[in-house]
# Entry
Amino acid sequence: MKTILTVDDSPSIRQMVSFTLKNAGYEVIEAGDGNVGLNQAKSNPCNLIITDQNMPGMDGLSMIKALRSLPSYKTTPILMLTTESSDAMKQAGRAAGATGWIVKPFNPQTMVDVVRKLIG
Amino acid sequence: MFRPAVFLVALVLSGILLVLSAPAWLLPLPALAALAVALWRPTPLAYGSQVLPTHDVQQPPVVDTRLNQSLDTLLRQQSRAASDEVSQVQSLLNDAISSLTRSFTVIAVSARQQQDIAQGSLGSGAEALINETGDTLSTVGKVMAENSATATQLTDEMIAMSGRVNQMIEQLAGLDDIAKKIHFLSLNASIEAARAGEAGRGFAVVAEEVHKLSQHTRDFSTRIRDHMGGVRSSIVSMESAAGELASRQGAETERVRHNVDNTLVDLKRLHDNQDQALGSLHDIARTTEGGIADATMALQFQDMVNQLLVHARRRLDGLLVAADAAAECRRALQAGGGNEALARCQAKLDETVASLAHNPVAQNNISQGGVDLF
# Structure
């Protein structure tokens, strides 16, 4: 079973992402901010990561940069899931190494479709 | 109060000049004088959309100082109170939405389990059972029909066998005739042996043996006839039983076939009803899943509202920063700090405004956000 890490400071968003992806047959682990997410990713090999941008501690873009510096996460798909929708922010995400950008609110089926496209 | 007074004086002067029929070029003079006075007032410092007043070198009157202090106190108190209330709203929203999300999760899981149970009880298992029952009933009906045919065939065979036994009994009469003729022959041989005297004594012994043979033949024929009579009785009984069996089997087979046909029709109807029920369940499940997907999207408003509230709190904190800067600026001015104090205050305010410029939430509704894959 493939493992997905969801990083968001909102417990309800984590709960919704987790429920949506578990129903689609994935194992999901959660983290409340970028620092915890980075540690979770280091201790649990993940096939895909979905992260928010604005979080206390470490934000999403900083976490992506830190993950991309690790050999094991050079090519792992990382999706941003955020309220931020400006082109400038998306460009920053792309430059940091994000694989894609999903603007909240997310549609559960769309999220499952995107995840399946990326990791099957 | 200063500028309205200047304009009022200018208006009165213009009226007097008009009454005195002064030359027309003198009429705008008071207005120009008023404009000059207004332009002579120092220009306030621009601060984004807000305006920071320039310092007045004169000492502020006591009433103004008290008013400023009251306003400052009010601003701080209300900002803090508003910030606390925003926190309270965040807490209430977090609690309520977490609870709602858990509830929707439970509803979704329950709906899925319900569908699985229905699928298990009405789905392929039930369909296989219905098909198997139908096949079994068809087989039972077919076997009973075959048994009925076999019973009829058995009856026919019994009748044929009974006829053959009768023929055999009739043919036993021929054996009796032969025995009777041998008996007469042995009698004649005995008479002829007695007539021959001593010479015919050996022949008399043969005649006696032939007589015994005819007697044995007759006894044997009688025993066979008795046995054949018993066989014929048994065959008649069997024929009767087979006939009764065939008759009963035929009636029962007809009844079973009728019942099997009815049961198969019922099973087909049950199967169709189950198909219909399964279809309805699938529709309900799809509707439920759609509703849950909509709810999942709608519940994400909490995250957006929460971020907006955090931003609103930061704005309230910005007001406190502005109040602090203004107070510091006033103190510096009172101590003769001048424009240097104003510049510091302006820099502080610029920094605060810059930090609040970016609103993390652009959405105005909860319709689905876009997806970009890089």
